[in-house]
Amino acid sequence: VEKVRAMNGGAGPHTWRALDWNAVNEYGTADPLTSFRFDLAGLIRPASPSQGTRRGLCPEFQAAFANELGCALHFQVPHRTDDLTRDEYELFLRDTFTRLRDGAPAVGALEGGRAFAGLAPARALTLELSNELWNSVFPAQRWMAREAGRRGQTVHETIAEELTFVWSVADEVFGDTRTVRRYVGGWMAEPDFARRILEALPPGTRVDALGCAAYVRPTPEA
Q1: CB–CB of 44/95 below 8 Å?
Q2: Measured between alpha carbons, how far is 198 from 209 in angstroms, rounded to an integer?
Q3: So what's the pLDDT on residue 222?
């Protein structure tokens, strides 16, 4: 926490993008050394014996971190994978978002025996579905491509449907308690990818942020 507080000349971060804290690049991997079954029974909670598994860190710890630092939370939501039915995935989303909203009861001596608070209302919450959905290196993009084939859609249409589903569940869970920022990711080298996702969203859909994955490096001359 103290190292993060020292960022930005001592002002700390404005927004903390959790990314690997939610291990979204692990969900759906086919690597036998790192794969796991995405089931509801294995969800990580404050009382779990480890916060360092392939499933990542529990939402309560991430909310506590943002609350402590007074920053916004950019939360990565794992994609569904073939391990969960749509109904099971909805249960996963509702459970995750409810814990972000409400926190969780105390667990022994953790946090000095205090209950875990939900993300403070003053802290903005941004939801991003997985990570780099344009990048075939990651399981999420490969699952979206397979799912698009099953649905007879383009991958952009499938991503748009999954985004709409995640956002709709979040809106139901958070209701009037907060506005959840909706994020669509893209890649600066392929701007058409994000454009086609945006075009596939239902007319009038609100999108709050567009990422560009701005990877840069020195030129050979430099």
Answers
A1: no
A2: 11
A3: 61
> Do residues 194 and 210 touch, judged by C-beta distance below 8 A?
yes
Q: What one-letter code names the amino acid at 46?
A: P
* Residue in this structure with the two tokens 């709050």, named with its chain if needed: 208
Nearest to 18 by CA among 49, 63, 69, 80: 63
Using the 8-state DSSP alphabet, how is residue 172 labeled?
H
Q: What's the token pair of residue 60?
A: 């309560």
Q: How does pLDDT run across 46-87, given as a tens digit for each residue?
A: 999 999 999 999 999 999 999 999 999 999 999 999 999 999
- Nearest to 155, CA basis, from 138, 134, 175: 134
Q: Which residues pair with 127 in a beta bridge?
A: 75, 182
10: left (phi over 0), alpha (psi -120 to 50) or beta: left
As given in the structure block, the two tokens for residue 52 are 């360092």
Report the C-alpha gap between 26 and 33 in whole angstroms: 11
Contact 73, 18 (CB under 8 A): yes
Cβ count near 98 (within 10 Å): 15
pTM (two decimals): 0.94
Which residues face 184 on adjacent strands? Answer: 210
Q: Give the integer Cα–Cα distance in Å for 23 and 56.
A: 5
Q: Could you give the C-alpha distances from 193 to 5, 84, 188, 198, in angstroms and in order?
A: 35, 27, 9, 9
What mean pLDDT, rounded, does the chain reach?
A: 94
